[in-house]
Design goal:
This protein has about 375 residues and is an all-alpha fold. The protein has 16 helices and 2 strands.
Amino acid sequence: MTETAVSTPTARPGPAASPKAPAGPAPERRKPAPGRLRALDGLRLVAALMVAAYHYGGRGGTVTDAWGTSPALQFPTLHTLFAYGCLGVQVFFVISGFVICMSGWGRSLTSFFASRVSRLMPAYWVAVVLVTAVFALPAVAYEAVSPSDALVNLTLLQQPLGADRVLGVCWTLWVEVRFYALFALCVVLPGTDRRRVLMFCGGWLLAAVLAQAADEPLLDLVLMPEYAPFFVGGIGLYLVHRDRRDAHGWGITAVSFLVGQHYAVAELWNAADPEAFAHRTTFGIVLVVAFGFLAVAAIALGWLSRANWRWLTVAGALTYPFYLVHEHLGWVVIRVLHRDLHVPSAATFVLTTAAMLLLAWLLHRFVEKPLTPRLRSALSRTL
């Protein structure tokens, strides 16, 4: 949910090298990516559409009221596949680890803070206001949160404060914010370099595993054991992107995948539950997690460099606002199309997704584009 552009450093002219250079540490091997990684933009939208498929047809709960019956009846075959769409969140986290390491490399703490806040908050604020307003309409059959809780939601601190959430997906933003804080304090603040990034990855992964064993809520809150492997795996893949011969980067990525798939299976495997909406298999969960790691790895290695179409940049720009609004406002659209207008299930699914993508474009065009650079500039001047 962030920029994916990187710049290529330019060489500066200088005196010719001496035949016998003085001894010293070997420079870091680096293979910079010239330009925008548009394939990464496309992968972000794929992950968002996976989550949307889960929310519209891969689970029960409130969306059942929108359809009028269980999505399992609306999509007798596809609902089982849609149930794996929740793993789009884990794919997002791998992408986030890659992108945050890339965008934070060489930045000051002030610049990093300004970039993250200006990227997250404008669309988030508008989405909170929009969903609160729509749910407050008498014609909408969903209960709005209290005015006090709606105001707290504007801070992105509603979960630790115990307030009701306006956006169901905002729990992932709370995870992202904690990752940003850890990365900023441990890597950006002291100055980003390869050694420090490696120490951060190894230290966080080990501490997260120990926190899981300790069963201490405060450690779980800070270290996020179930999500740390995905962020760390993304960071490892960025190191591979800089130098595909980086054995440490490959090692971090491999260990992160092995630990991450364990957490994903432990959390989402439900084949033994007879009351489950759809039965996810261990193989299916591992396969989707592997897809996330392999897709980012293919981008990191340049295998998808030919996927350089400009529309992928637009797809990446739509991902974050789409992710924010698709669930709750999607319920409203599904109810109107399917129950009021009697549009068939498949067409309702497609039209709802299209409507949320259109709304995402409007948010990007009229909220993010004008406000993000202004907020970034203001925060950069203030600190």
